[in-house]
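Revision sheet: structure tokens.
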Amino acid sequence: MGKVGVKLELEDRVVSVQVTPLEASVVELFEGQDTWTEDALTEKLGVDALALRGALAVWAGHGVLKEETEGSWRLLETVEEGASRCKSR
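Predicted:
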């Protein structure tokens, strides 16, 4: 599947990472909308729920996305208090 270089310029940091095309597609959708449900993302991207959860977990690990309630995700423009800043640059 390969890797894609992604550079995200958020309010308080820049995150530069190599990710899969699916992971890049997921985070790109958050450019136009700050919150998404997993159901809406699977429908929009045409992927299964398991693959989507894996992609969301990658971005959560980088401190870019956070699951607010079960199945609802939000873009983190700023690092939340108590969270460590992502070291990716």
